[in-house]
């Protein structure tokens, strides 16, 4: 096994979250009743023509810029011809020889800390087909054309991937970028992000690639990794046995974890690409691209740098916060109200995240606005409340009443630390009076008893004392 | 009822109450009935036409009628009209009703034209004689043993036989101009990008244009004025302003006109057509214009280039007729594959299948560069060279056809002979230029001879002014 090397390239289809379709004004929304978003253009009725949605180009440019691609200025559309029941026109509008983005890359981090670069060959724009539903009727295949014409970008990587871990990291990173750009929801289960893997093996050190197989129907990152692992095994065994690897298109069965032949190379379609005569080439200017670049949100990689330098977070904390754009945004907003970034990060990763997990909700549904969390942190920092009462008493109370004045709420919950020396001395004196023997022991040198006195004082004060201040007073009283 | 030769005549009689639009529509309906054997109309919208005529008569009285009030029009069976059948004269769309209207239909209706029916044409506009229609061929009204030309043969004969005043046809390689020439009419193909293709059944998307067939240049100009101009549903449309084309002016003195030597000095051109061309050249020179021969050696490549590119586009455009979503589905189909194969084999006619196969072939892996890519290059050269001529001259004149209308069945057994009928008409659509055919003279065989004028890109006004002048100066 060790003498072989895995070679993988991924083709990712990302459904763009535009309001309307790529070439028609029908809604591109997901989950509507079947065949409701179908104008004559979507249906491909005689005489209809495509009507290009400009947002598709903007989204594609964003993805290209985010993945370090060169953006093509003159973009031509092409037709890809094939017959299928869910393709009403008998062709798909796509790009062939002039993809809008070329020659990019993404750097991905592996568990062992190494960073590896995956090249991006091209990103092009195209339209989705409808959906064929084979399992809802015992006899017929049903067709839902709501998805027909929904815009996609196809992101084609170089064959730079050498392990299933790297494939997973690449997919995770791309998905994160798509979500940060808000151009695709990245949901693989619902099919808004789909992945085909081109997998081959070769002897380590070989310069030529082996015959590759294209595996389709991979509906999760985990399944992409499983398919890669399975194929690596299978192909290495074939090569070792001196057998030939057929250049087939394979289907991955998630239940068995195995691949099977979908179609052979001989059965491959001749798509007869040619320039789409119904759409003139779209000519972009550098100014246009620059304007889009200026409007782009900060990307995970840039934010990582900011979080670890400006905010002084650990790389681990930064990654946890950056995993979801909305969480990172919540954190950044919190950061504008609170300069103790470490404490802010701890609050989000601690109390906030555990609440979200308990309730199985996302940060966007979290009721407390960042400014209120900042107010809690402020109370802690100024020693008005302690951490325990903040998380266990104040935080739950605030969830039930998210707009309350935080300081007043703490007051009414009776958790404000009593900082007046007089009040504190009353507690200290009460405890010392309660344990005269122990006081004597302490005075004779058993300094370890300080913990006992402190515990009793805090208990008596129900946590409303600042422990540091209390400590000082107890020591002072004992040393008297 | 008298025979009207222009909208102006119709309007004059309507305004002076010599007639009503209702009686004019009834007159046309009567003639459509009488001349059924010409096989022009596939569908006649009699009740609708009469109802609209009543409404427009009222508008005329009130002085609120649109530009095309009084114009009774037929539309080619390639043009979608909401809730009306449209079939491209093909079995594969038999019984299909469009659920939306083409932009051109919306525009002519908005100006109070009356659509009297859908007319026959070659199947999917593929033909030069109207003999490929699933519904049978159309007869030339001048001589019933002759073809009317094609593909807009029904459009031409509907006007020629006075079954309506004008018709909307489509022109891909000559489909408006050639039948107009064969039937003694005016046929106009606008600049590519001038008229919306939305709602026009596609044959070859980078060539197709809608245009009028009329009895005179002014009516053609008026219809163009109504149907031309920007449409958000056709991305290939120019946003160039549309002028009042029908406000025809006398052409300037000393025009610079080019005639293409290869079109006149060619084998197979009827000697009388050749003579007519030279007579016209002399007459124009005598009228003070500069008329000079130019060479266009690319002419021999025009027809093959045209057929490679149009069939390629057609093979893709016609993929949607697959028996799955609409149109004809073979009753013998048992699964998806046989639905495709049988529906398409049974639904399309011979000529359409020939072109789909040709187009599929020229786009196939391994042949693409030799055919499609090369033809694209030749098209670009034809475009450049045509524009070069038009940078030195105001207009180009050439015959519309090498012969007058030919016999029914004469060329059906030899597709290449049929394709060569387009020899003079494919240059303009290859170059995307506007062109018009107007009646020039009458052949000794009694049939009309057409002359063609090619204008500059979006130079319709100058072309129409000149074409009008030609018809006024025989």
Radius of gyration of chain B: 21 Å
Low-pLDDT ranges of chain B:
none
Shape, per Cα inertia axes of chain B: globular
- Beta-strand content of chain B: 5-15%
Number of domains of chain A: 3
Discrete helix count of chain A:
16
Mean pLDDT of chain A: 92
Number of helices of chain B: 16
Helical residue percent of chain A?
40-55%
Helix/strand class of chain B = alpha/beta
Chain pair with largest interface: A-B, 27 and 43 residues
Unreliable stretches of chain A? none
- Helicity range of the residues of chain B? 25-40%
Quaternary class? heterodimer
For the record, give the distance between the C-alpha atoms at the N and C termini of chain A, rounded to a whole number.
Answer: 76 Å
The overall strand count of chain B is: 11
Report the end-to-end length of chain B measured between terminal Cα atoms: 29 Å
What's the overall geometry of chain A? Answer: elongated
Cα-based radius of gyration of chain A, to the nearest Å:
31 Å
Query: In which order are the strands of the major sheet of chain B placed?
Result: 1-3-2-4-6-5-10-11-9-7-8
How many strands of chain A?
16
Summarize the structure.
The complex is a heterodimer of chains A (480) and B (474). Helix content of chain A is 40%, strand content 19%. Chain A is an alpha+beta fold and 480 residues long.
Secondary structure elements and their pairing?
The complex is a heterodimer of chains A (480) and B (474).
Chain A: E1 4-15, H1 40-43, H2 54-66, E2 70-71, E3 74-75, E4 78-81, E5 91-94, E6 101-109, E7 115-127, E8 131-133, E9 142-144, E10 151-157, H3 164-180, E11 193-203, E12 213-218, H4 221-240, E13 249-253, E14 258-263, E15 274-275, E16 282-283, H5 286-295, H6 300-309, H7 315-322, H8 325-337, H9 341-359, H10 370-381, H11 387-400, H12 406-412, H13 421-434, H14 436-443, H15 450-461, H16 467-479
Helix pairs in contact in A: 3-4, 6-7, 8-9, 8-10, 10-11, 13-15, 13-16, 15-16
Chain B: H1 7-15, H2 21-34, E1 41-44, H3 46-62, E2 72-76, H4 103-110, E3 114-119, H5 153-160, E4 166-171, H6 177-182, E5 186-189, E6 209-214, H7 217-227, E7 256-260, H8 261-264, H9 271-286, E8 290-294, H10 299-317, H11 336-347, H12 350-363, H13 369-392, E9 395-399, H14 415-420, H15 427-431, E10 435-442, E11 448-454, H16 460-472
Parallel strand pairs in B: 2-3, 2-4, 7-8, 7-9
Antiparallel strand pairs in B: 1-3, 4-6, 5-6, 5-10, 9-11, 10-11
């Amino acid at each position: 096994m060790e003498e072989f090397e895995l070679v993988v390239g991924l083709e990712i289809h990302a459904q763009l979250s535009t309001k309307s379709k790529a070439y028609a004004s029908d809604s591109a929304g997901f989950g509507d009743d079947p065949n409701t978003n179908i104008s004559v253009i979507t249906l491909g009725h005689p005489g209809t023509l495509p009507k290009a949605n400009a947002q598709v180009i903007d989204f594609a440019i964003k993805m290209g810029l985010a993945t370090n691609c060169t953006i093509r200025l003159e973009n031509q559309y092409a037709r890809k011809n094939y017959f299928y029941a869910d393709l009403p026109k008998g062709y798909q509008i796509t790009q062939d020889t002039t993809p809008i983005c070329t020659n990019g890359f993404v750097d991905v981090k592996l568990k062992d800390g190494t960073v590896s670069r995956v090249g991006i060959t091209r990103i092009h724009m195209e339209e989705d087909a409808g959906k064929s539903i084979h399992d809802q009727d015992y006899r017929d295949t049903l067709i839902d054309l709501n998805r027909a014409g929904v815009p996609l970008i196809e992101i084609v990587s170089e064959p730079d991937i050498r392990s299933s871990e790297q494939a997973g990291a690449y997919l995770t990173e791309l998905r994160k970028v798509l979500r940060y750009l808000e151009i695709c929801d990245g949901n693989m289960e619902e099919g808004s992000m789909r992945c085909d893997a081109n997998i081959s093996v070769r002897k380590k050190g070989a310069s030529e690639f082996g015959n590759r197989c294209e595996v389709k129907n991979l509906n999760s990152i985990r399944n992409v990794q499983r398919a890669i692992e399975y194929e690596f095994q299978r192909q290495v065994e074939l090569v070792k046995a001196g057998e030939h690897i057929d250049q087939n298109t394979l289907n991955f069965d998630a239940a068995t974890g195995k691949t099977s032949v979908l179609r052979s190379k001989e059965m491959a379609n001749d798509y007869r690409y040619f320039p789409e005569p119904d759409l003139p080439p779209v000519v972009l200017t550098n100014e246009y691209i620059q304007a889009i670049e200026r409007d782009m949100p900060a990307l995970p990689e840039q934010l990582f740098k900011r979080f670890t330098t400006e905010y002084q977070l650990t790389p681990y904390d930064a990654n946890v916060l950056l995993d979801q754009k909305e969480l990172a945004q919540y954190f950044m907003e919190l950061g504008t109200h609170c300069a103790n970034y470490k404490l802010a990060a701890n609050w989000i990763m601690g109390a906030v995240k555990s609440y979200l997990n308990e309730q199985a909700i996302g940060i966007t549904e979290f009721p407390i606005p960042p400014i209120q969390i900042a107010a809690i942190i402020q109370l802690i920092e100024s020693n008005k409340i302690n951490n325990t009462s903040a998380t266990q008493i104040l935080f739950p109370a605030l969830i039930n009443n998210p707009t309350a004045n935080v300081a007043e709420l703490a007051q009414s919950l009776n958790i404000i630390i009593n900082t007046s020396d007089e009040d504190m001395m009353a507690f200290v004196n009460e405890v010392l009076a309660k344990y005269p023997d122990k006081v004597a022991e302490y005075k004779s040198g058993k300094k370890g008893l300080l913990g006992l006195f402190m515990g009793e004082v805090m208990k008596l004060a129900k946590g409303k004392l600042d422990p540091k201040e209390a400590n000082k007073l107890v020591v002072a009283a004992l040393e008297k | 009822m008298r025979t009207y030769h222009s909208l102006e005549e119709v309007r004059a009689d309507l305004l002076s109450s010599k007639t009503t639009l209702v009686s004019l529509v009834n007159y046309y309906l009567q003639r459509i009935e009488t001349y059924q054997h010409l096989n022009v109309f596939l569908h006649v919208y009699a009740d609708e036409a009469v109802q609209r005529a009543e409404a427009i008569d009222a508008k005329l009285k009130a002085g609120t009628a649109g530009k095309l009030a009084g114009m009774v029009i037929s539309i080619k069976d390639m043009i979608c009209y909401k809730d009306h059948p449209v079939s491209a004269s093909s079995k594969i769309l038999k019984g299909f009703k469009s659920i939306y209207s083409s932009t051109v239909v919306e525009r002519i209706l908005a100006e109070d034209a009356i659509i009297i029916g859908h007319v026959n044409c070659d199947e999917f506009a593929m033909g030069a004689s109207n003999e490929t229609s699933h519904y049978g061929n159309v007869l030339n009204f001048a001589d019933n043993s002759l073809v009317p030309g094609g593909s807009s043969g029904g459009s031409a004969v509907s006007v020629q036989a006075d079954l309506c005043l004008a018709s909307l046809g489509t022109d891909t390689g000559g489909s408006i101009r050639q039948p107009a020439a064969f039937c003694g009419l005016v046929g106009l193909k606008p600049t590519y990008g001038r008229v919306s293709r939305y709602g026009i059944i596609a044959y070859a998307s980078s060539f197709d244009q809608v245009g009028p067939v009329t009895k005179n240049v002014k009516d053609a100009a008026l219809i163009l004025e109504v149907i031309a101009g920007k449409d958000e549903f056709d991305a290939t449309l120019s946003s160039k302003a549309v002028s009042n084309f029908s406000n025809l002016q006398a052409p300037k003195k000393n025009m610079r006109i080019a005639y293409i030597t290869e079109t006149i000095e060619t084998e197979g051109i009827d000697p009388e057509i050749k003579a007519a061309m030279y007579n016209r050249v002399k007459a124009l020179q005598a009228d003070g214009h500069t008329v000079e021969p130019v060479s266009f050696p690319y002419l021999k490549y025009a027809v093959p280039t045209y057929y490679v590119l149009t069939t390629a586009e057609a093979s893709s455009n016609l993929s949607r007729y697959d028996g799955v979503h609409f149109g004809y589905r073979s009753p013998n189909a048992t699964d998806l594959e046989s639905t495709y194969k049988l529906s398409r084999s049974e639904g399309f006619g011979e000529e359409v299948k020939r072109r789909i196969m040709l187009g599929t072939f020229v786009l196939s892996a391994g042949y693409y560069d030799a055919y499609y890519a090369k033809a694209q290059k030749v098209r670009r050269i034809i475009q450049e060279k045509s524009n070069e001529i038009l940078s030195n001259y105001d207009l180009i004149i050439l015959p519309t056809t090498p012969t007058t209308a030919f016999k029914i069945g004469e060329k059906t057994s030899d597709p290449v002979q049929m394709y060569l009928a387009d020899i003079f008409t494919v240059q303009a659509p290859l170059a995307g230029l506007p062109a018009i055919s107007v009646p020039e003279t009458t052949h000794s065989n009694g049939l009309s001879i057409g002359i063609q004028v090619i204008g500059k890109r979006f130079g319709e006004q100058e072309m129409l002014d000149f074409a009008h002048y030609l018809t006024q100066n025989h």
